[in-house]
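Table S5 (text form). Sequence records supplied for joint modeling of the two-component complex.
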Amino acid sequence: MSRAELVQGALEAAYKRSVSHAAAVKLTYLQETLGRRLTAAALGVKDTRTVQSWAQGGVIRGGDDQEHRIQALFRVTYAVTEVFGPAVAAAFLRGSNPALGGKAPLLVLADEPPADAEERVMRAVDALLEA
Amino acid sequence: MRLPTKRPAARTAPLPAEGVVRVGYEPGELPTPRDGVGPNRFDDPRPRTMDRYLIRYAGRSLRGCLLELLAWLRPSPDALLREAQVLDDADSDDEVQAVLVAQEAEAQAIADFLAGREVGLLAVEGLVAVSINDPGLQAELDREPAVRALLDSPEGQAALGGGSKKAHLDEAAVRLSTDLGRDLTRACSLAIRDRDNRPDAIHYRSRHDDTEDCWAIYDHAPVRLIESSLLDPIDPAHRKALVDVAALWDLALPEGWTS
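The corresponding C-alpha cell record, covering 390 residues in total, follows.
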C-alpha cells in the first residue's frame, strides 16, 4: 500500500466509523488510545468519571453538540492514529498548531461549536498527514 | 494631486547552488494530487480544477525543514493546563513520575512521526524564485484581485486593517498563522504562477526562525534528486539538526537521538 493510499484509507475509515459507531464504542476507543484525562479535556468535560459513565452507556449530557464533539474527536484521533500511532495523536491534540493560529486542537474541539471545530481541526489533520 | 511614485520592482531570489533539502517519505517526488485545496501555505487554492498544480516544500538546511515539519508538536501551555485541570480517580501524587511519563510520550510521538522519512538533496540549478518577503513583490501582489478580495473581506480588515484602515499585503499578512493567512499565501502562490515569467519557486522565511530560508517549488520546475538517506541519529548532521530543534522548543528526544 502506498503512503497516499494509507492516508486516504485512514481518512475515509475515520469518517465512516465516526458516523456509524455508537458513542459508547467511540468513547472506549478514545480512552484506550488517548487516555482518560486527555479524552475528557478534549470533550470539554471536567471529570474522567463523566466520560467513563458515557462509555458504559450512560446518558450523554450536552445533547447533540456533545455527541458531535465525540464524533469529531473520534474522527481526528482515529485518522492520526491509523497513520502515525497513538502517541502522535495525543501530541497533535496538545500541540500549538500552526494551521489553527497556534491554538491546540484539544482547545478548539473542547470550546468551539463542534461543526466548525471538526472542519478546522480536520484541515490541520490533513496538513499533518500530508507532511 | 498625488505625484507618481516609483514602486520597488519584485526581485528574483537566487536558490542555493548546492541544492535544497527536503524531508519526506520520497523526497524527490511530488505530493499526491487531491481534489480539495491543499493544506499548506502555498498550495493551489483552487479545488477540483483541471490544471491543478502541486508544490514541493524545501529548505536551505535540515534544521529549517525540521522546524517546519515539527512545529505542530510544541505543547500548548493552555492545553496542558486544561488537561491538568481534569479530575481523574487515577491521579498520582508523584509529579516527577508524571513529568517522566509525559516526556516519554512526547519522545515517542517524535520517533513515530519521523520514522521512515528520508532527507533528500534536490538540485535546483537555473531555477528562478521570487521571495514572498520582498516588499516589491508584496506591493505587486497587493493589487491582485484574489489577494485584494481577501484583504478587503471583513476577516482581512479585522486581522490586518485594524478594523478601519485599508489592509495591505505586507510582512504581517504573509506570516499570518490563521486560515486567512493561508488563504492569502495560497492566492499569492496562484498569482505568482500565473505571471508572464512564471517563476519556478517562492522563497519564504520560516515563521519559526527568520534565518532559515525555505522554498515552495512549483511542479513545472525541473528539480532532480541528487541524494537521499534515511533520517537517522547515526548521521551526526541529522542528529545535530534534531537536537537543535528539540532544544529550541524544549522537546523530549527519542532514544538514540540524544547527544
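Note: The CA atoms of residues 160 and 172 of chain B lie 8 Å apart.
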